Every structure is written in C-alpha cells, then in structure tokens.
Amino acid sequence: MDCKNTIVKARAGLILDNPFFGSLALRLRLVEDATCETFWTNGTDMGYKPSYVQTLSLDQIKGVIAHEVLHCALGHIARRDGREEEQWNVACDLAINPLLLESNFVLPDGALVDQNFMGMGAEEIFGRLPPRKNNQGNGKGQGQQQDPGQCGEVRDAVNGQNVATPEEMSRIAAEWKVAATQAAAQAKGMGSLPGGLERTIKDFVEPKLDWRAILARFIQSSARNDYQWMPPNRRFVHMGFFLPSLRSDDLGDVVVVVDTSGSISDSEVAEFAGEISAILADFDTTTHVVYCDTGVASVEQFQQADLPLKLHPKGGGGTDFKPPFRWVTQKGIQPSCLLYFTDLYCSSYPQEPDYPVLWVATEKGRTPPFGEVVRL
C-alpha cells in the first residue's frame, strides 16, 4: 500500500466533495513520519505514520485530513500559549470533532467526542478538563500518548525547522484565517458548507469584542469628565481597539463585587483584578471591593496609591445578589458604577439601582434583569 498516494487520493476526494477542507488541505505538505503515533500538523506540514494509515479506510483518512485542516483553520497551531501540550490536544479535539461529525465525516475509532463541550472553544474546554495523569511539564510523561485524541495531533506552528516566535505565530494564524475565510465563502457559494461549521468559522474570523475593552469602556463612560479621541487610549491600541483617552480623572466611587460562592477560580479573580487595576490607574477614585456569597463576607477599600489591587476573597457559601446592593445603600455610597464578578448562578436579584451595573460573567447562558453583561 502506497500510503502517500492513498492520502493524495483522499485529499482529491475532499476537493470534490468538501471543497472547504480540500482546498485548505493543499496548503499542507505531506511528510512521512514513522516516529509519530497517527497524524500531526504544525500549520505547514501534515505528518503521517504509514502503519497507521494502513489501518484506516479511505473515508477515515478523509476525516483525519479534515481534522488536521480544522486545527489550522481555527488557529489551534498558534493558540496553545504555554498550556500542557497533550491536554491542549484533547481540548482542541473536543472542540472540533463534533463539527466534523455534523459534516458527515467518518473519524477513526477512539476519536474524542463529548456533547458537554458543544459550542465551546479550545481554551474554555482546556480550563474545564481534569488534570491528566503523569504530566511532566510540556514533555511526554511515562504512559502518555503522542496523540491522546487518536485522530491526529496539533503541534505549535513552525518557521522552517524551529518553533515559531509569538510574532510569527500571529502571522501564520492570520494567514490561515484569511485562507479559511476565502475557502468558507467559496464552499458556501457552492452550497457545501455545513451550518455548524459556518457558524464556527464566522465566530473565529469575526470575534466578539474583547471583555477587557468592554470593561474599560464601561468604567470610562461612568466618569464625570470629557474624553478625547486624539490621542487614543494607548493601553488598548495594540489590541486593535481605539478608545478615547481622558481629559481629566474625575471618577466617583467604584464598587466591585466579587462572588465568593466557590465557582470562580483564583486565576479568574486574579485576571479580573489585574484588568480593574490597569483601568483604575487612570482615575483618582476610591474602590470598594465587596466579597459576597449569601451575604457580605468582607469589604476592602483601595485608593489609587494602593494599586494594583491585591484581593483577599472571603466566603464560600451559596449566592445571593441582593446583599451587596443593600450594603451600598446602607453605607450611603452613590457609586459611579458597580461591577459584579460572578458566574450568574443565582436568581435572587434586587430592584434595579439608579447607577450603572456591569455583570462580568464567567459562564454563558444566564441573563440578569438589569445592567450590562460581558462574558469572559
């Protein structure tokens, strides 16, 4: 069996039957690699193990090629960002395999599919997975597989023989994004792009506004001052967001409520605190941090000189959204805005206050009866 010719034959079939995958597969150079376990891609090459290819049907080979192509099209080759390598492979597989099955591809036996992760991106899935056993950094621990998903690895993007730098990864991912957009448009015009895949590609090439920019805009719009577009706020220019800079730093008290019911991770709290600190550094204001589960557990107060915020959450019971708003009223505070960091798993809301409220939510699906919502 000539494995390379078999793969070429399968790829030709994709061009005819699934042009989105077929056209993108032509971007990957075929590389025979007897040392790998199944297939792999780094955005430039697609490696394959001949003995593994011989165990697959032609339809399964098409499925594996499509699997590797989708890793590239969705930028998985450039999004690992230091995460444990094999766990990242698992997360990426769980993100794309349902899309491939929806597109009527046949995947090899053992391919990872879990309906609980439907609609989630690889990063979100990674954060929900339990730790793998025998992990040893980014290496291969004893008993670990090169391809834990048994459907083709995703490896970091390369530039020549070396792993790409972050800047090079951004360029490679951008090139794949352009190619995927063009391939999707072509396939849609031919009526051969499945709906689920179309939505995924659209979400990837047209991402929603970053939550950090929404947070900054919300706080800045609560300030009692004027703004100027020239020069723009330099802190967000590198993210592609052009927000106005401040003419003054007149911002009333800010209330930050942290849900301490136990469903928010320490890393999420730290990330939130870091973003709040960076934004409030522009204002001479008082920040009240309220820790709450079913009641107000503790309160910390910060001035600009105390930044960055060092949060010390207390609590850990259930969740009730009413106590923090009641605390604000009892203390006679008229905040310029209130930020509530929570998973939104609660239905006990107060009446809508007369100040702006932003719910910074760690989970999808639930919508509070008032205020704005931004999803991490």
What does this protein structure show overall?
- The chain is of the alpha/beta class and 376 residues long.
- The protein has 2 domains: 3-205, no CATH class; 211-375, Rossmann fold (3-Layer(aba) Sandwich).
- The protein is 38% helix and 16% strand.
- The protein is built from 12 helices and 14 strands.
- The protein has helices spanning 3-17, 19-25, 50-53, 58-73, 85-102, 122-128, 166-189, 195-205, 211-222, 234-237, 266-280, 322-330, and strands at 29-32, 39-41, 45-48, 153-154, 158-159, 162-163, 227-232, 244-246, 254-259, 287-292, 296-302, 337-342, 357-361, 372-375.
- A 6-stranded mixed beta sheet has the order 11-10-9-12-13-14, with helices on both faces. Strands 1-3-2-4 form a 4-stranded mixed beta sheet. It has a two-stranded antiparallel sheet with strand order 5-6.
- The longest helix is centred in the middle third of the chain and has 24 residues, at 166-189.
- It is elongated and about 80 Å long.
- The chain starts with a helix and ends with a strand.
- Residues 135-143 have low confidence and may be disordered.
